[in-house]
Amino acid sequence: MKAGHVILGDWGTTALRLYLVDAKGLLIDSLGGPGVSKVKGNCESLFLELCAPWLKRYSIKRALLSGMVGSTLGWRLADYIVAPVDLHGLADQLLSIETNGINIQIVPGVRALNPFNYNDVMRGEEVQVLGAMALSPALVRGEHWLCLPGTHSKWVRLVDGRLDTFFTLPIGELFDLLRNHSTLLMATDVDNFFSEQFDSGVALARSGDCLAQLFQLRSRAVLKEIDQVQQQQLLSGLLIGSDIAIATQKMASAFSGKNPLTIIAGYPLSKYYQRVADMFEIQTQCIDGDVVSLSGLQAIEKQAGQAQ
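-> structure tokens emitted (308 positions)
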């Protein structure tokens, strides 16, 4: 990187994570903030407000942001690049914005014709995939499938280090909608989703009739067979189980090879997915989502800085 501190950021739909790194790429500080869905078009003012302490203390001329900040909901639209694609080329297609003497660069998203034969899109996950390859070099050789759980779970196929295709299942969004905006269950805090009900939900998902099983969230609670915590544990098992069941049904051959499924997520979500994958007899490896986001952003920033 060139001299001076740089701000790196993953700005998604529901959350923002900013990192301050020095000229050597060392992490100096980090902070969080609201996602673009809560900012309502005020990305520039919020960015400057959150970063004000850093801007006063350090000489910062550049920032690199990824995720939904580059969507129509965000700061400025950064167009999609088309898969199959070498993600190491992301640095060549950054969208630049000038604000308060800072060059803000936004990473483009990726689109692809997915295995379900419709055009799919992602923003932010492409940076995590790039970071995962930097942290786990084995991913650049041969075929690998990566699972990135979240609001919209992404299943990504890598072939010799190139993002070949991917598909999306809105698992996190469905959980939120059913938990907070439906009559099927009552929302309550849950400290641990691992339970007999969670495993039961996974087993029901493996049977392939998840939709037919959803109403039992209400009927069994009305009949006092399960309580509010167990409702959510059952729902979580049903949805995560369905996520992996759909992927294995669509990509059966991909999970019978020698390469493990790579799960990119934070704790405890990574452990929930790993537990379900074990129940499906799928070998896995887990990589922390925040770690790969920073790694991917640093890789792009390094390339972009060298090009300037």
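The mean pLDDT is 93.
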